[in-house]
Structure formats: structure tokens, C-alpha cells
Amino acid sequence: MAGDERRSETGRGRRGFLKAATLGSAAAVLRPSTLVGQERNGRSLGGGVGGYGERSGFESTLRRVRGSRYEQAAGSLTPLQDLNGTITPSALHFERHHAGIPDIDPAEHRLLIDGLVDRPLVFSVDELQRMPAVTRVYFVECSGNGRVKWSPAEPETDAQAAFGMTSCSEWTGVPVSVLLREAGVRPDASWMVAEGADACRLTRSVPLDKAMDDILVAYGQNGEAIRPAQGYPLRLLIPGWEGNISIKWLRRLQLVDQSYLTREETAKYTDLMPNGEARQYTFVMDSKSVITRPSGGHRLDGPGFYQISGLAWSGRGRVQRVEVSTDGGRSWSEAQLQGPVLPLAHTRFRFDWSWDGSETTLASRCIDESGDVQPTRASLIAVRGTQSSYHNNAIQGWRIGRDGTVENVDV
Ligand code: CO
């Protein structure tokens, strides 16, 4: 099969293609009339150019805006089931806000670095853009992503509803370590308090080790300025950790000698365990994967070949392996990983499958380079109970009905 595909790409695989077609290929058989529909559009001059591009008018995928008990919607979900590759288009990056999106003039915006430093510093956005920068691909995931899996599966839940609070971008910015060395870190500093310029002044305590390791003050996303909903003009980007701590609209980094026990690390973003104690500072996002095609809401068009495809990621480093089950978790086979496999980034996996038309369940599980294996829902709940809201990385199942419908199911 793979050999036939390779020959097809070089134009010498016609025999292989025809053979595949007779076995029940996804493609329609070629007829002489195939181009007629395209000719009907005529040969009049096409559309003109524009200053800022738009997608085809035939494309309609959207972020789904999450309902809120408040007047203003506070979040939106990435339509993972409609995306290709690994990069989330900036316009489809999920959103989560705690006090709306501030409208910030970058010429007025400043970043203050103070506290336990030798030299407090203030940077304008222009001044930050003069500093040594790096560009890296990282996912950002809300720790509440997968929250629906704390409850038994509802058939109509799709990939977007279950997992749409993760997105992956190419981020450009200045390493925090560069800025902190410029300010001079005093020996008694052990935490960094990061504060946003939104109305709630969202504030989180960040361990200094991580700050000196790989955290960025980012101003670029997928080649252009960060979108307002993602923190324009500056955001903290903390790779692999729960999204809430990557403070958007960043305006202050204060070095301190302890965690500041802010609202977002006490009342929220903690995990209540069965014994009544709460896990706190659960920063790292565990290994996770989801099949995005086919997934909930899709409908298979009869038996035959389908390439199963999905996303895997881990806050502990690279995805080492993804396994796919096409029999409800009874057996597992290794999927192909689309390279390059980057640490702390979405990784695309693919698995060739021929559906025989019978009812079955598809599932995937991620194993990361630390050895962390994505658990079943039952084994996760056996340890964590069901009082948590955050950090659910249970295996996702999709039941394929005889009629080709795809529904959410627990594995
Ligand atoms: Co957490």
C-alpha cells in the first residue's frame, strides 16, 4: 500500500491506483465528463488581490463560542476536527478570558521587571523587539481541556467540544532568561509573579527555574503580531504548562521569594482529590491524543479505505509513540508520526485503515518521551476521583455505527 502511494506521487503508480480503486477507494472513478462542471464556471477574469488575505468563501469552519453565565462569552474552541497538519491558524486559536479582551495600543504598552532584581527595568514593545529573539512551535492548552471526560460520554460530543481548548502556534519572542539576566536576579529570588493588563489583572506565580529555562515574552504568532485574544501586544509563553499561566497582555514580571497564592492558584486551577486534599501547582499538561478524522459528527461514506488522523502532544517533551485501536481498545497498533516531531508541540499521527462496514470503536493513546502513557478514563478516575475539573487526559473513543455515523464513547 505504502509503496503504491510513493509511486503515485512520482506519476508511475497508475496501476497501483486503479487496483486500490477496485478495492473500494475513496476516489470516484474518472469519467470523460469530469471537467464539465469546472468549464461551466467559464473563463472570465478571476478575483483581484487584497492587502490582507481571506479564506475561500466555500470554507466555513469556525471556533465554537462557549456559553457563559456572564453577559460576555469567555471562551471559544478550536475546531480540531476540521484542521490539517499541526499549526492552528491564528484566527482559530482557542480563547479563554477572565475579564474580556483589552484593546491595547502597543505604543503605550510597557513591561515592568522589578522585585528582587539589581536593576528594575521598563521595556516598550519596540525595545523588546531589539532584544535577541527565538522562534519556537509550542502548543497552548487550557488545563480544563478534556473536562467533559470527567462525566460519562455523551454521544453528540465532538472533538471540538471535548478537546478544542488546545492550539499550536509558531511563537516569536525574547527568552525571559535574557531579560532577567539584564535586570540581575538577586540570590533570594525563587518565584516570578507575572501580571496581565486585562481588567482582572490576571496574576500567576511562576517558579524561577522554569522562567530561566524556556519561557518567552512573545510578540509574534504564526509570523504576524499576536492576536488581541492571545495577548496583544505581549504575552508570556510557558511551554508545556497549563494555558492559564501563560499570562496574556503581560505588563509585569516581579521577582519574589515565594509563591503569591493568587486566586488562579488557590480558588481555581487546583485539583480536588478523593481524600479531600487539593493538588496545587499542577502545571504540566500530561500526554494526550485525539483522533480528529474521523471523529464525532463525521459520517463515513460506506466501507473502504480511510486514513485515520489525529493530534498528540505532551507537556513533558516529545511524543514518542501513538497507538491506535480500531477494535475498541482490545488491540493497539503503532501509528505513523508526521515529522519533524517537536517537543511541547502538537504532533500529527496517521493510521491507514480499511473499514469493513461493521460497528466498531476507534481510539488513540499517546506515549511521550518521559514514558507517560495516556490512561483510560476508568484508570484515571480510580486515582483522581471525579471532583477535579482540570487535567483530564483520558483516552478518547469514537464509535463507528453501521450507517457510518461517528459518536463519542468511553473506552
Ligand atoms: Co493545574
Q: Topology of this structure?
A:
Blueprint: H1 2-9, H2 14-22, H3 36-40, E1 64-65, E2 75-77, E3 95-96, E4 110-115, E5 121-124, H4 125-128, E6 134-141, H5 159-163, E7 166-175, H6 176-183, E8 191-196, E9 203-207, H7 208-213, E10 216-221, E11 224-225, E12 235-237, E13 250-256, E14 271-272, E15 278-279, E16 288-293, E17 304-313, E18 319-325, E19 333-334, E20 336-337, E21 347-355, E22 360-368, H8 377-384, E23 397-400, E24 406-409
Parallel strand pairs: 4-13
Antiparallel strand pairs: 1-2, 2-3, 4-5, 6-7, 7-10, 8-9, 8-13, 10-11, 10-12, 14-15, 16-17, 17-21, 18-19, 18-22, 20-21, 22-23, 23-24
The structure holds cobalt (II) ion (CO).
Residues 143, 242, 269, 282, 390-391 line the site of cobalt (II) ion.
Could you provide a short overview of the structure?
The chain has 411 residues and is an alpha+beta fold. Helix content is 13%, strand content 29%.
The hetero molecules present are: cobalt (II) ion
Report the span from N to C terminus: 29 Å
The assigned CATH architecture of the largest domain is Alpha-Beta Complex
Q: Helix fraction? A: 10-25%
Count of all domains: 2
CATH class of the largest domain: Alpha Beta
Approximate strand percentage: 25-35%
Structural class: alpha+beta
Instruction: Write out the CATH superfamily name of the largest domain.
Output: Oxidoreductase, molybdopterin-binding domain
* Count of runs of 4 or more consecutive helical residues: 8
Shape: globular
